[in-house]
Design goal:
Blueprint (H helix, E strand, L loop, with lengths): L27 H13 L16 E2 L5 E5 L4 H6 L6 H13 L6 E5 L12 H18 L3 E4 L2 H5 L8 H4 L4 E3 L2 E3 L12 H21 L16
Parallel strand pairs: 2-3, 2-4, 4-6
Antiparallel strand pairs: 1-3, 5-6
Helix pairs in contact: 1-4
The chain binds iron/sulfur cluster (SF4).
Length: about 220
């Protein structure tokens, strides 16, 4: 998805953060209520164009939360995030990291597919509150945004993605480790190498946290800023 300049000026997820609810205990009924709300949503025009809304895949108590940009055609058909070609690449990374199903979750910035995978300003504004509420419920220790659109929902100051990817920082106290989108990694050998290099850096960070497969040699920097 191409990221227009105006995206950098959009409100970030912070502005929709439900801070008053932060200390409340999470209940499954709360999660189900949120999912029903998203499922019925027609706040933007994408709601009437989708086949299925795409909400979440994985654990409800993840240590690592991958945040993609938007559902593609495969995800729209299945109603599940990252089940297409890019999803297979992400699954391979997850396997290399040694992450268990119980340790990870995958969501998207947009819950409905934008036709042609084009940026949709209306959806970007309308869907932010759902993203904030999902993260507030899931409470991961690390967010891995995949691609520029996902990074811009949290930390547009880190863009462009060529600079942001592979570097560890923080967002609202959570570890924040952007990567390029797995679909982009298929576009050239250079991007594939970047994806693999940043994956090794992520493995190193996770091993320090006691998550995933443990230590492995890394070749790129991974420092907390
Ligand atoms: S993209 Fe988000 S805001 Fe728009 S209809 Fe779907 S769930 Fe609602």
């Amino acid at each position: 998805m191409v990221l227009p300049e105006r995206m950098r000026r959009l409100p970030t997820v912070d502005q929709f953060w439900p801070s008053a609810r932060r200390t409340r205990r999470r209940s499954l009924s709360e999660w189900k209520r949120l999912n029903r709300e998203i499922d019925r949503c027609r706040r933007c025009s994408l709601g009437s164009l989708r086949t299925h809304v795409v909400i979440h895949r994985g654990s409800l108590r993840p240590r690592v939360l991958f945040v993609g940009e938007a559902p593609g055609a495969s995800e729209d058909r299945a109603g599940i995030p990252f089940v297409g070609t890019a999803g297979k690449r992400l699954d391979r990374l997850v396997a290399q990291l040694g992450l268990l199903e119980s340790e990870l979750a995958i969501i998207n910035v947009f819950k409905c597919r934008p036709p042609g995978n084009t940026f949709n300003l209306e959806a970007a504004l309308a869907c932010r509150p759902f993203l904030a509420r999902q993260i507030e419920f899931l409470q991961p220790i690390m967010i891995v945004p995949l691609g520029a659109n996902a990074v811009s929902a949290f930390r547009p100051d880190l863009l462009p993605i060529s600079h942001a990817a592979g570097w560890l920082s923080r967002w609202r106290g959570l570890l924040f480790f952007p990567m390029i989108h797995p679909a982009a990694a298929a576009r050239s050998n250079a991007l594939r190498r970047r994806w693999e290099r940043d994956g090794k850096s992520l493995l190193k960070v996770l091993s320090r946290l006691g998550a995933g497969a443990g230590p492995a040699p890394v070749s790129s920097p991974a420092t907390t800023s």
